[in-house]
Model the fold of this input.
Amino acid sequence: MSEVPPVDLVTAELHGSLEDPALTSMNLLNEVASRFPGALSFAAGRPTERFFDPEVVHSWLRTFSRHLTEERGLPEEEVRRTLCQYGRTKGIVHDLIAQNLARDSGIEADPEAVVVTVGCQEAMFLVLRALRADERDVLLSVSPMYVGLTGAARLVDLPVLPVISGPTGIDLDNLVAQIRKARQQGLRPRACYVMPDYANPSGLSLNLAQRHELLALAEQENILLLEDNPYGLFHSGQGTPPTLKALDSGRRVVYLGSFAKTVLPGARVGYVVADQRVATADGEVGLFADQLSKIKSMVTVNTSPIAQAIVGGALLENDFSLEQANTRERGIYRDSLNRLLTGLHSRFGQHPGISWSAPAGGFFVCVTVPFTVDDALLEHSAREHGVLWTPMSHFYSGAGGTKTLRLSVSSLTAEAIDEGLDRIAELFTEQMAVKVAS
Amino acid sequence: MSEVPPVDLVTAELHGSLEDPALTSMNLLNEVASRFPGALSFAAGRPTERFFDPEVVHSWLRTFSRHLTEERGLPEEEVRRTLCQYGRTKGIVHDLIAQNLARDSGIEADPEAVVVTVGCQEAMFLVLRALRADERDVLLSVSPMYVGLTGAARLVDLPVLPVISGPTGIDLDNLVAQIRKARQQGLRPRACYVMPDYANPSGLSLNLAQRHELLALAEQENILLLEDNPYGLFHSGQGTPPTLKALDSGRRVVYLGSFAKTVLPGARVGYVVADQRVATADGEVGLFADQLSKIKSMVTVNTSPIAQAIVGGALLENDFSLEQANTRERGIYRDSLNRLLTGLHSRFGQHPGISWSAPAGGFFVCVTVPFTVDDALLEHSAREHGVLWTPMSHFYSGAGGTKTLRLSVSSLTAEAIDEGLDRIAELFTEQMAVKVAS
Done:
């Protein structure tokens, strides 16, 4: 027998994504969090756990079964097959999702244009895989950008060109400039990724005029818009302008949906609405959704019908309105956001060097400070002050965000927010003293 | 407003996989099946539906919850979080899977080397994504080969070089020849994919000597083996030789597991055991499983903990033995296979032009005939004779399989097998008459 070698593989001979910051930063942040389990965490963008209840999960599953029997008239054997066997690649709750979109988001979606996915992440991955034909293809994204987007793009070797966010959520002049510059370089900009409502990580939202302008610009420049909308229902007051997809008369928008925050993260069910018409080599024309479905069949085959049934049951029990189903949650997030903003004001309102965003909803607030914010400071903060947050630099592909931190309030109680802010104030005071001293 | 264009995208500008036979053939076969819902189907490789029961699913979920509470001692809040919240990327039933592997397959797996995935398909995808670093990388696979493997490879632009199966499941001389030829061409063969037990589609199994030789060859040629084992528990008699992974003393084998046939397709839970040691650019050494986990975090984030809990409950209720849990199913598949083989013998035993494989387990039998077997004949068979099967040409990347069809017995009753064989006999008689006449 030959001696067992100490190393079997090296990442230098594995896919480049494995050494990419997009894939390693998530790990790093989780790793810091796991080493300081006692720290208060403004880092996790997880939904509140206050109403988690496995009995409700059982009940949703039964509700969907009853729906199959009573409303769709399926015989018992067919109900069992629908829940337990391999199933339709595009999913079994596509029609219920279409009803939810009509009810909550003003989107009239053809159920055949819906692909149910393993969370919104798979939806994003499928779209990027389809759009990346060769090395000329590039994606645009508002920067700072969601790490899940950057990571999925990296897996399919699709470069992401940053578009300036600015104070309003997107700098449209910069978007046009980036598109044209890319084309001059022989590149093929395919789409621009955007979270129009309470974006992760910036917290910013696009106003109605910007939404119309962005759609017109997509038409004019012949690109798609990838609209990701996990936080739209969590407005603090009057709600949000219509989604891009609701305003989309030219099939420019691919809509990415998630039930992680509105139903249950543990179901891992999301979806994509892809109603674009695609011509194949043999001249047939079908839906982009059907192309995405072909890719999905080679990634996850189909989304667990049991997981889909859980989400389907939740939709059925709430008359298809997740806006209505999340009344309690919306109240909690609104109160938490207000408490955080009030707490920031009372602690740092007099300090000219510290500023923060004031989003009208969602989970995230960005705080800009007069000292460097990096992973080393995060670790120091966790160890010495017992508080976690996210350095904004993780959301930039190049330089950027080095003096900003992201605070998430979604999974903290009011008391934890106050205590966490006290600890952050200690950290800030300490760091500013260091700065003055040095 | 500009006029809405009739077509928004063309596949020529989307990823090449979308026009690839690997991704379109699955669709084509499903499409034929859906147009002839009344036809008897030897096409689907689905497990029997006889014991599907949503109440059992509820019970498995409760069993796993109780396990968290009673055996792991988690407080109620932590149980709810484990089932409902986002969770560990590598999964929450990894330790139970390791116990199952020890019990049923003689595999001693470090639970940390297990990544729980959305079905075995995602496991395959993650491994191929990791191994395809650049255009020099190639995969080897016994041909005829599983379409899910070809499709996943196509998604990451990884060419698959066919290795001759021959009558024994793998031609090891051909494997060596293919590896060396590829290296002479400047290519980098990374791994060979193999189903050692009752392979899909050939039905063939490797004997113990071949398994040892294959492992020695992998060591000698410095490649990995991707062992896929969905059918190993469904032996007709004495069981199977040890898995490659059980014999793997040099960490050459990446083991791909599925619960679709042994627990429930609708859970969509599979896994990969990847205990290879990987050195990263900064010199740290970790498990290949952790690299796969990084990729998974950008494809599906994590496998639904509820779906995992269902599988976990099934493992707990069966003392970790799926060999034991599938006693009834194994009996059904054995009887079905015997009935099919007996039926083929009684109908075609006297015909020298027709032959078939005689596997000792699994779902699949291949029948070779003296006329051309293609998609047109399948459609004719469905329309005129009311019987579906799979043309073997779908399992070859180039030419091959043009006179062979695959029959699956996994989801047919004894009566349906007899009736289906009568219909197939009609088709064969008709086709041989055409051939004689032409």
In short: The first strand of chain B starts at residue 9 and ends at 10. Chain B touches chain A through 93 residues (CB under 8 Å). The mean pLDDT of chain B is 95. DSSP finds 15 helices and 16 strands in chain B.
